[in-house]
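Chain and conformation:
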Amino acid sequence: MSPPGMVRVRHFEFLCRAHHIEPTVERFRVFYQLIRNMGFYSFGSRGSAKKILLNPPKSFHDWKQKFFFIREEVIPIAMNFRASDVIEKEELAIPKKEDWYVKLTTTPNRVFGENVLVVAQMSEQWPQDSEEVPVLKFQDKG
């Protein structure tokens, strides 16, 4: 998956967690559809759904130099790979009146500090099974 697609996944997860909504694949698919662009997979906005990501990044410089491929023979299970460049457009019903859909509003793309990720339960530095409650201080100087 390309970096712009990953931004959409993480942004969706962050919005859901901020509103105490379980982020699911089904809900994600209401807003985005799988696309293929220049040989890489990503997610494009679903035309009939509202936009939840304002100002997505236009490019990520030098990301392809860090990209790697995994040979099929090293994957221990049988996987189906997309053989066609054509991805059929899906028509999904948009749940415009459902509470979770209404709560997710257009939000700008931002880079957040680790403290915000801890509160959203998206930090890799804070154990998911921790019984401690994080405490954040406004304008803490250290």
Remarks:
- DSSP finds four helices and four strands in the chain.
- Residues 5 and 81 are 18 Å apart (CA to CA).
- The beta strands are 32-37, 40-45, 53-54, 107-108.
- The longest helix spans residues 3-18.
